[in-house]
Protein 1
Amino acid sequence: MKKKDSNDIAVPQKRITLASAVSVEMEERKSIFIGHATPISSEDEARAFIEAKKKEYHDARHNVYAYMLSENGIARYSDDGEPQGTAGMPVLNVLKMSGATDLCVVVTRYFGGILLGAGGLVRAYSASAKQAIDAAGFASFEDYAVYKIDVTYSDYQRLTVALGRINAEEDHVDFGEGVTVIAAIEKARMELIPTTVSELTYGKGGVELLGFEERASRIE
């Protein structure tokens, strides 16, 4: 059940994932660790990313990976030849601790000739995964309802102010015989646009739901 605010309006459910795909390199006792992180939307995308990194870094001793998907709560990992529990699971734990979902991380290791031990491996793989996720940054995604609004010139200025008050996004404006505005608002608050237009124009303004789309905003 979605939470309600003081005006009994559903609070939008946000999906947080990575803002970009990155690769970050670090060294630990002569071993080189390269953390690759990317947002994903399916297991097929995760597998494709993993296979691409394995192919690109085919000469590396290990390409450890972990990924998580919000759909069905999927979480998978692989130690890729490292001692059990020292690589894939630590990377997955970093993903879980990030607060994000729908992401995949591959950590490539070039062995430098010095054994790190179980504890050293856990710390190195965790650090590499975290560096990659931090470098990628985070983006918040929400479902938005997109409307076409038709009003008169005399109502347009007041409409712009009203849309700002309800935190709706004004995407496009077309000035013709009347004014046509394309605006969007979080799906959970979608009823506010037709209600606002109706009240503002005394029922004379036109409102058409064009559809829904997911929009992102970067979290600094």
Note: The radius of gyration is 24 Å.
Protein 2
Amino acid sequence: MENRYNPDVLNCIANLSNDEVFTPPSLANQLLDLLPSGLFESPETKFLDPFTKSGVFLREIVKRLDKGLESVIPDRQKRIDHIMHNQVYGIACTELTSLLARRSVYCSKTASGKHSVTKFETPEGNILYKPLSHTWEGGKCIYCGASQAVYDRGSQAEQYAYQFIHTDKPAKIFGNMKFDVIIGNPPYQLQVNESGKGLGAIPLYNKFVEQAIRLSPRYLSMIIPSRWFAGGVGLDDFRKMMLSCGKISNIVDFTDSNDCFPGVDINGGVCYFLWQYEYDGPCDFCNITNSKLSNSIRKLNEFDIFIRRNESVSIIHKVLSHKGKTLSHPGGCSSQTPYGFLSTFVGKSEKEEGDCEIVSSKGWMYVAKKDICKGLDSVDSYKVMISKLSCEHAGNPNKDGQYRVLSRMEILSPNQICTQSYLVICPSKNSGEVENTYTYLRTKFVRFLILQTLVGMNISISNFQFVPWVDFSHPWTDEMLYEKYKLTQEEIEFIESMIRPME
């Protein structure tokens, strides 16, 4: 009897990545609806899902082509054979997903098997899977940045060395074939350190988008996390490219990922987009928040980051028209780790002469002043301290659709400092000015402006880029700020509807 390799399905399931989110058929069809219908009526159109998991995109494409080519290839079996062999291609993420995808598309885990709806000479058909190893250099993969300590493991374990991005020549995968449409839902991130040791994961979806663009398809559509709008580790160049290319004609953005993937919480929400090779113009942007749709034709690179709430743009225009400093300028919001102490720092429990008090998420401790290596100019000042984590850690509002944004806030006295868990705002020798800064940060107006730049749980200096640096010699209220920036009643109501009071 022929000895055939039969993978241990339980091993495959045990190693299935949590960073690969399966796509519901209804969502796959929303992306396909963005494409011109004529693509499904041509026997020449070629489609590629370069990171197929369940095969849902390929299956739904086949269904549309089957209907669209009825008049061109009347015989059903000949039509199916043509579509499967010449128009629909996939690259599986893992061995398990290659079997799932072939089962979805060919109705058989082997394209050459007797149950396949069309016969190929190879078991793979046009849905490929090639197990690869990472290419290590300096402890990291040169293609995806994976940690050698985490992913250099036995051959039985999944490596997550995705074929589409682990090559300098992606066109060679299918013999330099030219694809009209590249579409799908790529893996989102990859762990780069062992749990609890520094940065846990890095974004991966941007590498799939960039690799797809190198193939110059006519159309490119993907579902990816929305964090690229304003944040994300290592995404600055990707964000600049996406916002300035002029080729993105449509974006549909879900503030809450549950509205897109029921039961899946993705910090900052998710979006899908349509990129067109021959397009150059503004973007039809649709934001969905609390099941409410807001559409606007937008120029994506109007700001350095992308503002996802269409209703917010006019407010930001009014703030920026004053052309003053913002709290992202030096002396406003501090950088991360304002005094050089990580969140894991444990200070002394007993105070010695000359020590400073230091607060962490674990409480108050003491540290010798000589051990402070950053922020020395503000140690002897009053300053506002805020948590670096937003109040809404998952990025979602409360049941009323409102945000608090800022979490823990305190005024630190001279010789009081903090760890990496916090940021410091506007240090001053004048305690009255710091008290006014504190009340200013608590206004709905300021917290609204911070919220426009947040697409995750972490707050940093960049999130204050729209917050004006006002005169702190007197206190501020929302009413004073609304009047100063000449907000309309509609704009005021929008802010009030989004931001809840701070108790």
Note: Confidence is low (pLDDT under 50) at residues 7-18.
Protein 3
Amino acid sequence: MKYRRWVLAAAGMMLAAPGTGDAQQGRRAMNAEQRATMAARQAEALLVDMRMERPIEALNSVWIEELTWMEVRDALRDGKTTAIISTGGIEQNGPYLATGKHNVVLTGACEGIARKLGNALCGPVLKLVPEGDIDNPSGHMRYPGTISLREETFRAVLDDMASSLRAHGFTDIVFIGDSGGNQAGMAAVAADLNERWRGSARAHFIPEFYRYSEVFEWMESELGIVQTTNDGFHDDFVITAIMMTQDPASVRHGQRLAAGKASINGVSIADKEATIDVGNKLLGFRVDQTVKAIKAATAGGN
């Protein structure tokens, strides 16, 4: 019954949607009975699809964009009703790190968070975010390679992504961001969605993911690693080590070794495997802290 109600509503919306050309004229010419008949046929056809058994084993992935629609459907039926929307950015990050630094971090982070939660899937990383004014470049937009969104565009995309996920049955939509400029927009959109949804689903902004000061404190107290200098770049050992867990080329590890530049803020990254090991520990700490915050938010409201 749940899927039948959803399918009938979807078919009704398809018929009600504005069209152009011959299709629009054809709909205008239909009488109420014909429209109802067409809606019923579309609903039944969609219902058949929704009831169809998946013919092959599901891919072991938590990324919605990597899954088939049937795999997403079945994950929802199995209780994976939390969806994570992560926001990164394309910006200048000094001479060594790829402009997609935050997106690289989120590839590992969202994967770890979703798997540890056990009831979550990851939406595509939102790779474009506000990075400064475009027409009169400010902030990171002063540097080549940066791509910026207007704040209103960023918030509209977040709203549409979250609303799409809710429409398909996700009941908890989680926002996390790896850049300081993303935080206020995510908080505002989550509040707006909760006001609009009024309990039919919930949006949660999780600021704990971006508390880098806690990551540095943990690194110093638990791992004994301390940055002794500041190289003056938009870069640090924590972010570099975490990026290396995903792709050492994203921090230009090979080139830096060749140039004698395999360190950041007084900490060596020359030993690739050792740095990746530390990066995994740092990433694990961030995942654990974020999972705790998500569990608290989804258990107790927003």
Note: The first helix runs from residue 2 to 16.
